[in-house]
Amino acid sequence: MGRIVRRSDCKLERACVWAGCVIVFGLFSAVLNAQMPVSAPETERPVPILTGNAGFFTNVNGGETELVPSITPVLLVPLGDRWLIESRAAFTGEFERTDGGGAYGGKVEQEIDYLQLDYIANRYLTVTAGRFLTPFGVYNERLYPIWIRSLQPTPLIFPLGTGSSDGVMMRGGLSLNPKVNLNYATYFSTLSTLKKFESDRKAGGRVGFFLPGPRIEVGASFQKELQEERANAFGFHFAWQPAAIPLNLRSEYARSHDGSGYWIEAAYRLSQVPFWQKAMRRTEIVGRGQQLFAGEIDEDEAEEYGLPDVNTKQGDLGLNYYIRDGLRASASYSRRFNSDGNVNLWTVGLAYRFAFPLGRVGPQ
Amino acid sequence: MNPRVAILTAALALVSSAYAADPPRKGEDASISTPLARSSTDADAMRARGEQRFHANCGRCHAAPQKFPPRMMATIVRHMRVRATITDEDMRLVLFYMTQ
């Protein structure tokens, strides 16, 4: 009986895959026939760019000082009207004093976060192939760069469901009506053990609804691991930026085999403070509360994924000062509570965002 | 591949293909360029809408950057269209606001 069920499941699976292939093929044919690209004027034609960020931070974790210089170059190469090659690498140093004092030493970690080819098929669909950031929640894709994130320590739940994937992805955004925008991403990732291109076999997607009036976004993510435990993961995200005050509220929840938890963050720009206007409008204060419930993983796995292996609560406070465009000084204090012992985490440093054209750009 | 994943993928492709059959709206083309403003009043109105869309979309994650030359902005906006799943209309208006 079980065998019959498995065979019928197999037939259904194959039928679904074929149906999907036929529809996707039909979609591309329709798009290619319906919309022939019209070139932009020469003065607006996109040019390749080298952008990214560099930073230097000093972290004190439970009394141990760590120096963390980093550089994250992003290469953007547009091809024609519809194609884009984009890649981001990360070089991060982690230097600590050796036991008993002495000079700082350590290693520089090198990662390829993404190396992807995007094809803008139409107003509603972009097809991506290659290595891409896994669209689970919004922190990984939108808030991770050090010049963007409001607090330098990443949320405790950040490793859940995120990282990079090798495969194909379809994504896009569309206006459902003047009050609601929909954005979506769906992907399939293959197993890869290639050095610097490691990824798991999994599939998933994310959908979000953005209300431009009140500037609220809510969304959900789902992921199915297609290897080992074949575990499911899901999450929700929320963001609100009220127009009346310079406040940014964000929150995420994630649940997976490796753990679950949430974070809530508020960042407030002091531009409405009536004194020291010049300095205050460049200053931002940030607060975050978060909690992680440890999952079914052992200590070694937890360390590999960058997750605490016991239930943990953490409160974070931060201060950002925007010195000039792309240059920001940041400091933060966090207090972590768990059964391994409560610790203080301090961070202070600078983050800089750069952007250079790799071709002639003409007059500004 | 899990049948549910295949069905989800196919459903998304179907929805997208239905929209693809919808021709570009009047005054738009399929390429990524700034929309045409026919008068200075049009341009002012589009700039205002572009600024609004900029704060609604881009300002949610990061502070406003300086204005780059149009050819750089065209690349940056294409990158952000993919990264932040910005709608086509918002992307055009933001590009207009950042370059005009």
If you had to describe this structure to a student in words, what would you say it looks like?
The complex is a heterodimer of chains A (364) and B (100). With 364 residues, chain A is mainly beta. Chain A folds into two domains: 1-34; 50-357, Porin, CATH 2.40.160.10. In chain A, 13% of the residues lie in helices and 54% in strands. Chain A has four helices and 16 strands. A 16-stranded antiparallel barrel of chain A has the order 1-2-3-4-5-6-7-8-9-10-11-12-13-14-15-16. Chain B is an all-alpha fold. Chain B has a domain at 33-100. Chain B is 62% helix and 0% strand. Chain B has four helices and no strands. The longest helix of chain B is centred in the first third of the chain and has 18 residues, at 3-20. The radius of gyration of chain B is 16 Å and the shape is globular. Classes of the chains: A mainly beta (364), B mainly alpha (100).
| SSE pattern of chain A | HEEEEEHEEEEEEEHEHEEE
Tell me the span between the first and last alpha carbons of chain B: 48 Å
**CATH architecture heading of the largest domain in chain A:** Beta Barrel
Mean pLDDT of chain B, rounded to whole units? 74
Walk me through the topology.
The complex is a heterodimer of chains A (364) and B (100).
Chain A: H1 2-34, E1 49-61, E2 64-79, E3 83-97, E4 104-122, E5 125-133, H2 139-143, E6 164-177, E7 180-189, E8 202-211, E9 216-225, E10 232-240, E11 247-256, E12 259-269, H3 277-280, E13 283-294, H4 299-305, E14 312-324, E15 327-338, E16 343-357
Antiparallel strand pairs in A: 1-2, 1-16, 2-3, 3-4, 4-5, 5-6, 6-7, 7-8, 8-9, 9-10, 10-11, 11-12, 12-13, 13-14, 14-15, 15-16
Chain B: H1 3-20, H2 40-57, H3 70-83, H4 88-99
Helix pairs in contact in B: 2-4, 3-4
